[in-house]
Specification:
This protein is an alpha+beta fold. It has helices at 9-13, 44-48, 52-55, 65-68, 98-105, and strands at residues 30-31, 35-36, 70-73, 80-85, 115-120, 123-127, 132-137, 143-147, 153-157. The chain has a domain at 50-157. It has a five-stranded mixed β-sheet with strand order 3-4-5-6-7. The protein has a two-stranded antiparallel ribbon with strand order 1-2. The radius of gyration is 16 Å and the shape is globular.
Length: 160
């Protein structure tokens, strides 16, 4: 069984409202190369977080977030994989072996397809096997994505 060990990438990349910690900054409770300095007292957001590296079978040690420089999770939205990338390595997700697997996950012809959303430095990209669609600055709006009638991928924010 995999464990977090000394990783702590979630302690850097996640926003933790209970601690007033913004995304992409180290948590004040994180002890470098050790882990959470207040593990028993950590906020609910930390307790509830599930890193896909820990839960998905078949992801080798190369996918450990502190090695890959990104973390993968599903959030609360079914059918969406979220890849949060360390701002110090913004292109890490496009390196091999990661990029080929991310593209494979984005194939909507699978029995259980995923929308793959990559977040880097406040910007959002929706990944398809044939294209990466840059949506620009991340917004607190729903996203609609898929294929148009000409079978071209699309992704856009939906303004209500």
């Amino acid at each position: 069984m995999k464990s977090c060990g000394t990783c702590g990438m979630c302690c850097k990349l996640m926003a933790i409202p209970a601690l007033e910690k913004p995304a992409a900054s180290w948590c004040p409770k994180y002890v470098m190369k050790t882990g959470c300095g207040d593990y028993e007292g950590r906020p609910q957001a930390c307790r509830a977080f599930e890193c896909l590296y820990l839960t998905a079978e078949g992801l080798s040690d190369a996918w450990r977030p502190d090695k890959a420089k990104f973390m993968i999770w599903t959030g609360r939205e079914q059918g969406r994989l979220i890849i949060d990338v360390d701002p110090s390595a913004p292109m890490a997700w496009r390196q091999q072996p990661y990029y080929a697997q991310i593209k494979a996950w984005s194939d909507r012809r699978q029995p259980q397809p995923f929308e793959v959303a990559v977040r880097v430095n406040g910007k959002l990209t929706i990944v398809f096997p044939e294209a990466d669609i840059d949506l620009g600055a991340e917004q607190a709006l729903p996203i609609e994505s898929g294929y148009d009638t000409a079978n071209r991928p699309f992704a856009r924010y939906v303004r209500t």
